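#struct-help
A.M.: can someone run this one for me? Single chain, 480 residues.
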Amino acid sequence: MSHASVNPARGPFPEGFLWGGATAANQMEGEYAGGGKGLSIQDVMPKGITSPPTEGPTPDNLKQVGIDFYHRYAEDIALFAEMGFKVYRFSIAWSRIFPEGDNSEPNEEGLEFYDRVLDELEKHGIEPLVTLSHYETPLNLARTYGGWTNRKLIGFYERYCQVLFERFGSRVKYWLTFNEINSIIHEPFISGGIPIPRDELTEQDLYQAIHHELVASGRVTRMAHELMPAAKIGCMIVAHPVYPLTPSPDDVVQAMHTAHASYAFGDIHCRGIYPGYLLRHFRDNGIELEITDQDRDDLTNTVDFVSFSYYMSICESADATIAKGPGNLMGGVPNPTLEASEWGWQIDPQGLRVIINDYWERWQKPLFVVENGIGAKDVLVDVDGSLTVEDDYRIDYMNDHLVQVREAIADGAHVLGYTSWGCIDIVSAGTAQLSKRYGFIYVDRNDDGTGSLERYRKKSFDWYREVIASNGAILDGSAA
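D.P.: on it. Structure tokens below:
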């Protein structure tokens, strides 16, 4: 699993470090057509990214109920508070606020729901971290407009964000514009609401859609700073260090090209201009984007911090005959030195230290680890008359990764906080399963939709509570 680290850092994390957890609306809320909500792209993705979207909602889509957070939010937030969360990252469902995406007026019932969620967080002293768009583009915007390939989405998104900033701006300090924005390269429908299959989508159309998202992010960042001077606005990207498979310079260059594909999103968010290597890619491939002077100005509104998900590192090889890793969303070839999860995601705690150092040195912006965790098939067992999950594998995984966060902070990186992914069991985005569990809290619901929806604390629940209470001092560095 993990490898020995030289002279591991000791002691607690910085004072004020934001410990917590993260979720997404479409994977947990349920009430998919209630409360005035419209359909999102998730409502036609009953198998996640593993099969093409359906024409309309189907009864086998677990996200229609999720874990019923819509009705159980107070109970769940109380459990987060019991663990000692300082921050909770959640997303607002765009189609709960603007059911069709292009409505002229917002849905008040949707706004009132998030008011109630914020009430509970405030009651427990938990800081909200809000993702504005988390893989849940309104379905109408995908089907009618072609998703983010259409410039009109910039205006629709801007109006949506303005409503949220004006409604919740006094209550929310931390905002993220787009979840894992660089994933659009590989999954254009879930990430960009683009209904054209990936193998039929031209690079011209893909990068024009990416441009529209980046312009929208810059424009909304400026708006946020104007409407909420005390707020902090961040971008959010999939982070994965890219290692050359061998010392061959050809492999090193291939790893550089793969890293550039994701660096570009952070470079633009942090520097406000397109990097030279991306402009070369456009020249070499005959890509000519429609970029206005206003677009260029919008891009100069850079973010206050960089947030990211981290689940794996990848290797790259110039040898095209070497098979890619089956479990890796962002491609790459398997690393022969690493083990993998049940879903083929290679486990590399030290890669998290590498990426934090890399991002800090590259952008000199505060960093926020807003997703990290391991999906596993947990088993509910009776221990001394109480139902729980003996998830020592999760404790080991998270301990080893958090030790590497501590190492990176000792290296000099500025890290604002850490929110574990799926802090309560939710429906998987990739496979739309509930059996792929990440949480500290077990939710009694199965892949066939059966179950009581009751919540049970896992062994990791108490462990994470102790981590937070000690500000990371109890983490074991001996195995990291």
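A.M.: thanks! The chain has 14 helices and 14 strands.
D.P.: also worth noting: Residues 203-227 form the longest helix (25 residues).
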